[in-house]
Amino acid sequence: MxxxxxxxxxxxxxQSFKYGGWGASLTDTYSRKADIVVRGYGGYTTRWxxxxxxxxxxxxxxxxxxxxxxxxxxxxxxLPGRTSERQHVPLEEYKENLRKIVRHLKECSPTMLVxxxxxxxxxxxxxxxxxxxxxxxxxxxxxxxxxxxxxxxANECVExxxxxxxxxxxLWSKMQETQxxxxxxxxxxxxxxxxxxxxxYEEVVKVFNGASLSAADMPSDFPHHSEIDPQNPAKVFQExxxx
Length: 243
What we know:
Blueprint: E1 3-9, H1 11-14, H2 22-29, E2 34-40, H3 46-49, H4 53-56, E3 67-71, H5 91-108, E4 113-117, H6 124-135, H7 147-164, E5 167-169, H8 171-175, H9 181-185, H10 194-210, H11 234-239
Parallel strand pairs: 1-2, 1-3, 3-4, 4-5
Helix pairs in contact: 2-10, 5-7
């Protein structure tokens, strides 16, 4: 059986199999080594994601994922009183929801690698331009998210990871190390361009590699064709206990 790696999150995860997506890149990297399973739900917050845990990660499963990325918070950080206020989750509740998610995953499998990914930074100008393109004159004058608030959620995400002893990727900080990150990494002030997806992919792979989940070190599910003896094709399958 191949190992399974689950990508759990909101629209940034849901869209990760698009052209240039970070999920698609992981699938390519782990080809024949692990199945990359996308469980992304556009618009979801940590509050709503809690209702999915027992469906996606059932307790008592005999084949739990070897790793799970949890990429939530971009919607939690939506501001009250703005266009996306129905998604707002207060910071303290966000932290507690992350704790519940991590604890559930660890109950599924104590050895599972859990990686918390922070919300990305917000290009407020880009969000405002996007709102105007969608709502026209009805668009609110102020953006529904700010980079400062997203940073608060990012910081707390990292702190929860430290508190619970799991890995994290501080995407909010990492992206802002690059000049012109606003347009290079974000397509609408929030969602990712192919370059933005590349950052997520590279940071996640770093964590996986550091946790002994390097694709290069994982066994393939079945023998490479070069290992098959055309005169005795069953031999290699027998040697690997596959017959």
